[in-house]
Amino acid sequence: MxxxxxxxxxxxxxxxxxxxxxxGFWHNxxxxxxxxxxxxxxxxxxxxxxxxFGNRVSGNGFEWEGKSYHLEPNVEWDSHYLHGxxxxxxxxxxxxxxDALTLHYRHxxxxxxxxxxxxxxxxxxxxxxxxxxxxxxxEALPFGLGWxxxxxxxxxxxxxxxxxxYWLEREQWxxxxxxxxxxxxxxxxQPNVLPRQWVNNGFAGWNGEALISQxxxxxxxxxxxxxxxxxxxxxxxxxxxxxxxxxxxxxxMSHAPDDHHRPQGGNLTVLKPGESQSQTMELxxxx
Length: 287
Prior knowledge:
The chain is an all-beta fold. It has no helices and 23 strands. A hairpin with a 5-residue loop joins β2 (11-16) and β3. The radius of gyration is 18 Å and the shape is globular.
């Protein structure tokens, strides 16, 4: 397994070819993302890509243009095809410099046949990651993109991210009924603390920007084009042995959970063979 380290002034980034995951993002010695374990295991990393779409599809299948598609589960601990394929496989390096890195991953089996590319660019006060997917299959299909970053969580952490409503969670970690009002504990329209209990909900009506305030700095997350949905995840020691409410996830997605079952694929992007879709996430240190 190869680890790539980029540096630009006080910012440092480490990326693994395994899973195409970020294994650390620091300002000097301060971690801006949860430090990964440097093993290329996505759920132990700092951030991993979601491609060819994020989250789950209920029933592990969908109907598209009169045809039925079945998705196979891809991890032992979940009965669903979860977060696509990129986070579970090796990526290849297309080029690197002191402050930039490009990786690609090609997937040639199953429902989705595609090539994905990630370009990491480290500037003096920000990191941008551009994720692109190109449909290499023979049929037009609905695609989506996103990321699963892990942020440090302390008593002083606050999250601000616009939302007009959210989805309840139902069985098997699936998105449930949509709610057009937010409970106080999950209202991040103004800076708010993260609950110290299990949270796994998608939020709608997002403008693609979020502000994460820590004791000594603020980090702005911005997506281009503006992603319409984000997920907030806080684990629980009852489920995740050893978890100490020391990280949370704020996951930008170009589509809503289970959009495969919404008319015209919801916010998913229909790509014909040879067509591509791109999304950029920027993490900028404000102070």
